[in-house]
Amino acid sequence: MSQPKVKRRIGKYEVGRTIGEGTFAKVKFAKNSETGEPVALKILDKDKVLKNKMSEQIKREIATMKLIKHPHVVRLNEVMASKTKIFIVLEFVTGGELFDKIVNHGRMQEDAARKYFQQLINAVDYCHSRGVYHRDLKPENLLLDASGNLKVSDFGLSALSWQIRDDGLLHTTCGTPNYVAPEVLNDLGYDGATADLWSCGVILFVLLAGYLPFDDPNVMNLYKKISLAEFTCPPWLSLSARILITRILDPNPMTRIIIPEILEDEWFKKDYKPPVFDENYDTNLDDVEAVFKDSEEHLVTEKREEQPAALNAFELISMSRGLNLGNLFDGEQEFKRETRFSSRCPANDIINKIEEAAKPLGFDVRKKNYKMRLENVKAGRKGNLNIATEVFQVAPSLHMVEVRKAKGDTLEFHKFYKNLSTSLDDVVWKTEDDMQEKK
Ligand code: 3AM
């Protein structure tokens, strides 16, 4: 069980756990071993990127993104390639996703929504001015930093999953339809700037209403509603917010409001303070050139180093007191994706108990040694919830169990964990402190 840990290294980065799996990339947590700086590592299949008809455009957009250092855009630090993979090194953003706030606390007051919308428009305007379009603005791409400021992720990267035709306009067959502009769905070719703006309008609506403007379980009906911009503002919206939303959610891209007009809009302008930042950011693009030239010379090596598990028993126990939900919902990390608990039961009993608890909740259970993968057969808000667990031995009769979200929605993970904690009550080791707290 407490086998040596294998540490993965890519160039100067120590690679940690998977943060999420998107449509075209896996995102892993990593640490720059020279500076200690945490980063998010996007890992892509080299073949898919370089053989993509759009690889020239992807290269141009990645190069542009590397030159952008905007306070509301996730920073792209560098690009690396190994023999088979491309790694995009991004600033690590710690505050979770903006929409987790809506899921947890419901719709926002207009002043709060306005602040995020101003930051979003500011980021979008800046990237557009540099010729980079997002094309896939949706809740998952709106992250929050430690101070609660918005950071837009994946600017310039979504081209990876899109197709382009000879007319120079973008065409797509996939995407999150709820946020996608009508002209994109109609596949008539479209302009990236006005299409991005539509998605910003949908995002603003959700912030203020707490639900989607266009929604239907039937995709054809959904398409129809979007094409006709068939939506109703909730009664609590102010008149000026309604006016702005209606101007953005105009199904005709030719008459839709444009960013310079938004900047002059009455609702938008209130307390607007565009961020001040240094635009003349000096960086070099040799890494981007090397990756897209596919030159052997600059390949980074992927190394695996065996390491004995380094934590000692005291550290483990202090990391995993009881099955207290405080573990999961502690103040700083409201949107935590992992937690641990300790148990005095034999490892096999722990595994069996988790399996027994997970199956009735609709999970498929796969076991391998002391690791388990639980997959919800039903798709949730962000695809099928996937949970990874592992049992570590701390001492002969003491185990530490790690439970983490591998894929899916964080809130659904929290709900699962709450259920699990009820079923595992007799497995969890409760210290005297925990017993006191319960009283
Ligand atoms: O799987 P979920 O939705 O919880 O928030 C992003 C998403 O999480 C996260 O990785 C998952 C797949 O996209 N993510 C993406 N870029 C990130 C970054 N720069 C990030 N998390 C932190 N920093």
UniProtKB/TrEMBL annotation:
SUPFAM superfamilies linked to this entry: Protein kinase-like (PK-like)
CDD domains from the UniProt entry: CIPK_C, STKc_SnRK3
Cofactor(s) needed by this chain: Mn(2+)
EC class: transferase
UniProt keywords, alphabetically: ATP-binding, Kinase, Manganese, Nucleotide-binding, Serine/threonine-protein kinase, Transferase
An example Gene Ontology molecular-function term: protein serine/threonine kinase activity
Lineage of origin: Eukaryota, Viridiplantae, Streptophyta, Embryophyta, Tracheophyta
Name this protein carries in UniProt: non-specific serine/threonine protein kinase
Residues making up the signal peptide according to the UniProt record: none
Record domain NAF: where: 306-330
EC number: 2.7.11.1
PANTHER family named in the record: CALCIUM/CALMODULIN-DEPENDENT PROTEIN KINASE KINASE-RELATED, CBL-INTERACTING SERINE_THREONINE-PROTEIN KINASE 3
Residues the record lists as binding ATP: 42
Catalytic activity field: L-threonyl-[protein] + ATP = O-phospho-L-threonyl-[protein] + ADP + H(+); L-seryl-[protein] + ATP = O-phospho-L-seryl-[protein] + ADP + H(+)
InterPro entries cross-referenced by the UniProt entry: Kinase-like_dom_sf, NAF/FISL_domain, NAF_dom, Prot_kinase_dom, Protein_kinase_ATP_BS, Ser/Thr_kinase_AS
Entries under Pfam families matching the protein: NAF, Pkinase
Domain of life: Eukaryota
Organism: Olea europaea subsp. europaea
Example of a GO biological process term: signal transduction
Protein kinase domain: residues covered: 13-268
Similarity comment text for this entry: Belongs to the protein kinase superfamily. CAMK Ser/Thr protein kinase family. SNF1 subfamily.
